[in-house]
Design a protein that fits this description.
The protein has six helices and eleven strands. By secondary structure, it is of the alpha+beta class. It has a domain of 124 residues: Alpha-Beta Complex (Topoisomerase II, domain 5), CATH 3.90.199.10. The strands form five sheets. A three-stranded antiparallel sheet has the order 1-3-2. The chain has a two-stranded antiparallel ribbon with strand order 4-5. The protein has a two-stranded antiparallel sheet with strand order 6-7. Helix 1 packs across helix 2 and helix 2 crosses helix 3.
Length: 240
Amino acid sequence: MQFQDGLKPGQRKIIFVCFTKNLIREIKVAQLAGKVAKNSAYHHGEQSLTNTTIGLAQNFVGSNNINFLVPAGQFGRLLHGGNDAASARYIFTRLSPLALLSFNKNDEPLLSYLNEDRISIQLEWYCPVIPTVLVNGAQGVGTDYSTDIPSYNPLTLSNNMKYYIRQEDERQRQLNNPTSQPKQYPDVITLEELIPCYKNFTVEIKLLDNDRTCGVINGVWSKLDETSIEITDLPIGTWT
């Protein structure tokens, strides 16, 4: 995984081929996997590609805050953690509008490409307009290390990006002209605290320690009678 875009190599290959083929019309997931394997030098089984494609399109609670692919069909449900998706032969997908906004095609000539047999097989990494590694989070295991990055609200990330851009713009203006007055903006942007957030998850996520780096995600249950309880929300990542 690259922290620049938060994508694993298989995910990046899928996004790359979708942009290269301008995939704005629906295509079977199985067919897309074949295109990715052919055009991005994917050296593993297509089943792995179909699972990755399904993961990019899932939109149930706890999956993606922004799904870069549009799900058309049964792409998995919350109850089973997305593992009950239909066969790749019967479900369809395409690039989502938010993927087109997140990864600006005009940036591609400025980015580095990976090549195999003198053919461009994928970008080394994308440069998204907001930090997508924080939008959808990331989980992975490597040699001696593992990572688990929670998801955050894209609107909060966008707001904070604007805040830092304005701060840097003002700093540069002061360096170039120390006597200049602060630039006036039509709106006031303040820095918002980053708290893990999952789309459509209504339970409050509580941060615990003083430096705000540790938190707890609870579920919701109620007691019906002496022998029964009703669970209405499960913690993120906990499936039935």
